Amino acid sequence: MKKIKSKIISSGRALPLDIVTNKEILKTINSSEEWIETKIGVRERRFANGKENASSLGIKAAKQCLEKANIEADSVEAIVVSVGCPDNFGASTGSLIKAALGIKSCSVHDITAGCSGFIFAMRIADSYIVSGMYKRVLVIGTEILSIALDKYDRSTYPYFGDGAGAVILEYTETSEGFQGFYIGSDGSGNDVITNLAGGVKNPISFDSIMRRDCCLKMNATAVWKFATKIFPLCVNRVLEESGYSLNDIDFVISHQSNERMIKHCMNALNLPLEKTAINIQRYGNTASASVPILFSELMDSNVFKKGDLVVWVAFGAGLSYGSALYKF
């Protein structure tokens, strides 16, 4: 009996129009272009303007997927969206995207798992397909982090950017597709990347706004310590559980958190930098959108060939972490 898997049939991405350089960032923080480029690896990032939001970027990325796959929107049976800053707290971002795509009937829901969210979303979509529930699922990571940033905070403002990426997963009985996943979360690090107000526990108030408690807070040192341990662990675990080894890897698609961090982790795994790609210099850290944005760029550049074994890895707020193994 053939094993059912999910495979990617297309990918897409969308970036805001406004490009924000380090020179502009430095208008409100005490730092330097050299520090930002050396310590983080970012030269510029995209910030959404007043007309762009999580759903609008997600819609653009989704339409790209549909066009590349040459399929009708109505053939999509489910939509899973990873989003940290949704348009509102009523209708899900997935529901807004579904309506804009003109899909009459399909399952939609959002998930929140920080920068690891897209890996989690793909795991859910893969489970839908492998279980036989659906045969075609649209997965989107869309983030508008700029709205949550404190422009006076050096520990967050230079790091992040906005964007969206998407893939369409489809049923397959061939050898290609997802070979395995490894996901988890360490709740002891809930306060490492967070905001102090804006939820039900601490609603927005005049005082919280004045203290900038609604803005994203990040302990960069703690993130580094966590990520440099969990990145290699995630890569090794998904390989082991799928019956492969480091020697089998052709490429690593990493969350674009920090250029130095990615290079450090690749070195820790004894993998050459030629087996990964970095685009944080152009987009900053786009949270759960970073992995699908990078993947879409790589697909458009025809980087992968049949038989290639690729590891996806991400980590973020929660502290969450996840990896996926994919065979072309």
UniProtKB/TrEMBL annotation:
Q: Which residues form the Beta-ketoacyl-[acyl-carrier-protein] synthase III C-terminal domain?
A: 239-327
Q: Which key words are in the record?
A: Acyltransferase, Cytoplasm, Fatty acid biosynthesis, Fatty acid metabolism, Lipid biosynthesis, Lipid metabolism, Transferase
User: In the UniProt record, does the keyword Transferase occur?
Assistant: yes
One example of the protein's molecular function in GO is:
3-oxoacyl-[acyl-carrier-protein] synthase activity
Q: Which PANTHER family match?
A: 3-OXOACYL-[ACYL-CARRIER-PROTEIN] SYNTHASE 3, BETA-KETOACYL-[ACYL-CARRIER-PROTEIN] SYNTHASE III
What's the family? Belongs to the thiolase-like superfamily. FabH family.
Q: What is this protein called?
A: Uncharacterized protein
Instruction: State the species of origin.
Output: Blautia pseudococcoides
